[in-house]
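For the sake of clarity, the format in which proteins appear in this thesis is described at this point. The fold follows as a row of integers, each naming the local backbone shape at the matching residue. One such record is shown here in full, so that the layout can be seen directly:
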Amino acid sequence: MTEKGEDRVTKRAEEFLQVFKKGAEFTQDLLKENERLRFQILKMEEGLKNDLEDASPESETEKLRERIAELEREKQQIIDRIKEVEAENLDFANRYIDIETENNNLANLYIASYQLHSTLDFKEVLQIITEIIINLIGAEEFAIMLLDEKTNKLQAVAGEGLDPGEVPTISLGEGIIGEMAKTGENYFIEEMDGYIRDLRHPVVCIPLKIKEHVIGVIVIYKLLVQKSRFAEVDYELFTLLAGHAATAIFSSKLYSESERKLSTIQGFLDLMTK
């Protein structure tokens, strides 16, 4: 990574840390407010107790009744406020977890995208994409299929949890996989419960696109046990991943082809000069 790229990564990481710090500060403020209200209730109860001890049974009865009623109202108001603060604390905690999860996922994707573009070796690129799909998406069985533009057919070149050779070759426009490759649209199954693996009908099909040009698809057939459904952020990750993965695959293929051609030309030149 260049120095400028490292500065961008560092700046992005600092921005994430600032979000977490602000969240932590806000939580501390809420907890302090909660504690202050509870302390005020204790003071009121202590004041009521002292008033009862000091009061004259005959002369202060009416005043005490009024005072008791007033303190009861104030106490109820403070209790209501404590409940509101506790509800706000819970809501904030839930939102904080959601934001932290989303930020972590985005940070992981940012790092993953850098890894994708850090090599021009085709096999390494496929391995990095595989690791991203497992660790970031939570898929257990899936395949990466690339489009042969000469034959207009999709063929699996890598996979996890299954042999790429098991995945049938799909013509452009054929079935769900072929149709998604043709239209460039994402596909998600409507109901995952009861799904039985069908190599022609995946749970998810994500086209690998460079702008509007599709070079292949990612097909997912099974999620990890601990992941029963997709979260909202997953759909964003799929779209972002597809673009970065497509660019990395396309670049590495071009590089591999140019290396082979260069090697062939060099070999030919060596023969000519001998």
Summary: The chain has a mean pLDDT of 79. The chain is about 65% helix and 15% strand. The CA atoms of residues 99 and 132 lie 21 Å apart. The first helix runs from residue 3 to 54.
